[in-house]
Design goal:
The chain has 17 helices and 8 strands. With 332 residues, the chain is of the alpha/beta class. The protein has a single domain, classed as Metal-dependent hydrolases (TIM Barrel). An 8-stranded parallel sheet has the order 1-2-3-4-5-6-7-8. Helix 16 packs antiparallel against helix 17. The mean pLDDT is 98. The chain binds hypoxanthine and zinc ion. Zinc ion binds next to strand 1.
């Protein structure tokens, strides 16, 4: 088996994907039409042309605009189901999906509508595609602490359906410290914790995510390389980083893929994983991300297997399930 065949054959877990970032233009047009909502594009080609980003914020502006056509439970179902079919194609057997309730509740959509649609698709994927999933609710960090507290309140009745709480949106100027108290409350309620840190922000934000939010994983975290002491800590604790190569390229976190540090992070003993982030906006799903780093960084078969093993090690599934998938990878 060559490396490209190995990438396809590996069972993989996805740990960093925003469901609103899987919204393909074709589906966006279809849902906009049935909901009678105008979108500022004439064609799918025109939409794709708009996906030329200079930084995180220029992407977020378009990402939040796209999400506005999602109104009904069925819309959230269709969005999620389309993503889960992509998982099936890429042999992603487990996924931990982020959703941003504030993007929807701020437009008057009920929290329950969002969650019910996503959950129903996840249940169907378990039955029909044998894909397991967890949900992680994210706070939008450009909004206030008070609004995060309100969102946490809304999630409490769904404690059994939501495994963790995360932090996303505009990073620079909105450090983890801003949300220390609301994450303490989330931990007390029994949620696992993740946070975007060290994507555009500095290594200092990764320290804050570890020490103030007490995260179980860091999302992105690529700027940790600026700080050797932090690198040692991440390696020693096997603190997972959910790295998103095509995202980093599209948002100009790296100038070209050959400069991406994922291989160096792996070689320094960090538990790095590969993820798609917002695949409809960044040019590819899980296997596209693997192929992009394989081509740019000349990864070996052992590197590719290690990345897939890390994805299960870093996941929130139970130890028995982890072992089952890791044994399968080692047998390839
Ligand atoms: N970073 C921060 N917020 C986000 C991202 C991201 O890559 N994608 C969707 N929301
Ligand atoms: Zn992200």
């Amino acid at each position: 088996m060559n490396q490209l065949e190995l990438i396809r054959a590996l069972p993989k877990a996805e740990l960093h994907v925003h469901i609103e970032g899987t919204f393909e233009p074709e589906l966006m047009f279809a849902i906009a039409q049935r909901n009678n909502i105008e979108i500022p594009y004439k064609s799918v080609a025109e939409v794709k042309q708009a996906y030329n980003f200079q930084n995180l914020q220029s992407f977020l502006d378009i990402y939040y605009a796209g999400a506005k056509v999602l109104i009904h439970e069925q819309d959230f179902y269709d969005l999620t189901w389309a993503y889960l079919e992509k998982c099936h194609e890429d042999h992603v057997v487990h996924t931990e999906i982020f959703f941003d309730p504030q993007t929807h509740t701020d437009r008057g959509i009920a929290f329950k509508t969002v969650l019910d649609g996503i959950l129903r698709a996840c249940q169907d994927a378990k039955e029909k595609l044998s894909i397991s999933s967890h949900l992680i609710m994210c706070f939008l960090r450009h909004l206030s602490e008070e609004e995060a507290f309100k969102t946490l309140e809304q999630a409490l009745p769904y404690k059994d359906q939501i495994i963790g709480i995360g932090l996303d949106s505009s990073e620079v100027g909105n450090p983890p410290a801003k949300f220390e108290r609301v994450f303490a409350k989330a931990r007390e309620a029994g949620f696992l914790i993740v946070a975007h840190a060290g994507e555009e922000g500095p290594a200092e934000y990764v320290w804050q995510a570890l020490d103030l939010l007490k995260v179980n994983r860091i999302d992105h975290g690529v700027s940790s390389e600026q700080d050797p002491v932090l690198m040692q800590r991440l390696a020693k604790e096997r603190m997972p980083l959910t790295v998103c190569p095509l995202s980093n390229l599209k948002l100009c976190v790296v100038d070209d893929m050959q400069q991406h540090n994922i291989k160096r992070l792996l070689e320094q003993g960090l538990c790095v994983t590969v993820n798609s982030d917002d695949p409809s906006y960044f040019g590819g799903y899980m296997n596209d991300n693997f192929v992009a780093i394989y081509n740019a960084l000349n990864l070996s078969a052992d590197d590719l297997k290690k990345l897939a093993i890390n994805s299960f090690e870093a996941s929130f599934i139970d130890e028995k399930e982890k072992k089952k998938w890791i044994d399968q990878i080692n047998a390839l």
